[in-house]
Amino acid sequence: MDEMNQEDFDGFRELFAKTLEMQNRAAEMSELRFHGLQVCVIGILRMAAKNPKLAAKLAPEIEEAAERMHGVALGFPVTEQYLQQRDDILQRMLPTGLKELVRLPTQR
Fold first, then answer.
1. What is the pLDDT of residue 2?
2. I need a labelling partner for 106 at 20 to 30 A (CA). Which of 22, 25, 52, 90 fits?
């Protein structure tokens, strides 16, 4: 097998650098989309929390989603402390009108 010459090595290094740059851009875009989604969800939750009837209907849906996430997390090597911390954070993120209505898996 022929040894790699300097030109081939430089080409490989350039290709690797471009690939890494593309991955970094993709990761940044993914982070931006996730942040945008968070902002939208928090806005929707705040709006729902102002309407008691809507909050009452939404609370069981949030509990169900949290229960599913809890089940998924149990399939991975996570501690009960991790799940408790996650639920504590979720509870703090809920607006006041929903906070009292939602019972997350580790709070039952």
1. 56
2. 52
Scan for tokens 């968070």, then name that residue.
Answer: 38
Start-to-end CA span in the chain (Å): 65
3-class SS of residue 85: helix
> For residue 57, what are the CA distances in angstroms to 39, 48, 106?
21, 9, 21
Distance CA 10, CA 48 (A): 57
Which tokens is 95 given? Answer: 């607006």
User: Per mean pLDDT, which range of 4-8, 17-21, 53-57 is the poorest?
Assistant: 4-8
Phi and psi (nearest 5°) for 55? -60, -40
Q: How far is CA 13 from the centre of its chain?
A: 34
Tell me 94's DSSP state: S
